[in-house]
Write a structure and sequence with these properties.
289 residues; five-stranded mixed β-sheet; 19 strands; mainly beta
Length: 289
């Protein structure tokens, strides 16, 4: 056997090994990007905006799996109808491998100056996921809070928190990741359910017209299949709405056991709005991972 015939097989083996190492390194840069990884996606279950707000924004969350994938979304009129009440076309959301950031779907709200039902709604539904995507919460309901009637009202939105399972280590992180590139214009109603330091999540409520003077509402939590003292710290308090605000948030602390649960919830109940009435005053807060 010649020297050349000995060198060529060895060189080919070296190149093959190098290519395998590069491929392994590439997956290492994007954890979860392996072919057997399935990206979970979920849309805000409910988002409310006053008619004068101009934009209603849904956040579509994804978990730490970094596999490439896509999901389509379709828009369905309810009591809110296009184009008179809002404008939004169906579309597709895409993630390249390594991207664990959230996506946003924005509807333009039309201010018509006509007194209507206090809450009008439409639906955005996720579907047709690609091979490496699973949809864990497919339907988001957009609600337009009428501000033309001579009536002040408050409401509270359902929330979905897509969690990273944790033990007793550092506080969990919910996507969008802090390292993800921020959206340059998140819109006035973009309020993704993120876990803050101390395992705190924020429960959002809205009023239909900006507060002319300081106002108050009362919020309390109620058990579903998540339980106060085991999964979260109960809340029962009066919240002040500053003059000029169109709503607010209430912090709720999640306990470690909540991060082992999947598709379970507690409720947040809104009452005693000092300036008017409460509509749809009970919200479901669901954790999913």
């Amino acid at each position: 056997m010649t020297m050349k015939s000995k060198i060529l097989p060895a060189l080919a083996a070296t190149v093959t090994a190098l290519a395998a190492a590069v491929a392994t390194a590439a997956v290492g840069v994007h954890p979860g990007a392996a072919a057997d990884c399935r990206r979970s996606v979920a849309i805000d279950p409910q988002v409310t905006v006053a008619e004068a707000g101009g934009t209603l924004t849904f956040t579509v969350y994804t978990d730490s799996c970094a596999a490439a994938g896509s999901v389509s979304y379709t828009v369905t009129d309810g009591t809110a109808r296009r184009p008179g009440d809002y404008q939004l076309a169906s579309g597709v959301l895409q993630w390249p491998a390594g991207d664990t950031g959230s996506r946003q779907v924005r509807a333009v709200i039309a201010g018509d100056g006509q007194a209507e039902a206090l809450l009008e709604d439409f639906a955005v539904t996720l579907g047709s996921p690609s091979q490496n995507v699973r949809v864990v919460s497919p339907v988001g309901r957009g609600r337009i809070f009428d501000d033309d009637a001579q009536l002040q009202a408050a409401t509270i939105d359902h929330r979905l928190c897509l969690l990273e399972p944790r033990g007793t280590g550092p506080a969990p992180t919910v996507l969008p990741s802090p390292s993800a590139k921020p959206d340059p214009d998140p819109g006035p109603t973009a309020s993704p359910c993120t876990v803050e330091s101390g395992n705190i999540i924020q429960i959002a409520f809205s009023i239909n017209t900006a507060a002319a003077v300081e106002q108050t509402v009362h919020i309390r939590t109620s058990d579903g299949d998540l339980h106060a003292g085991l999964d979260y710290v109960a809340v029962d308090r009066t919240v002040t709405i500053p003059a000029g605000a169109t709503g607010g948030t209430v912090p709720v602390e999640l306990l470690p056991h909540a991060f082992t649960q999947n598709g379970k919830h507690f409720d947040a109940v809104l009452s005693s709005y000092s300036a008017g009435l409460v509509v749809s005053g009970t919200a479901r807060v669901t954790v999913w991972h």
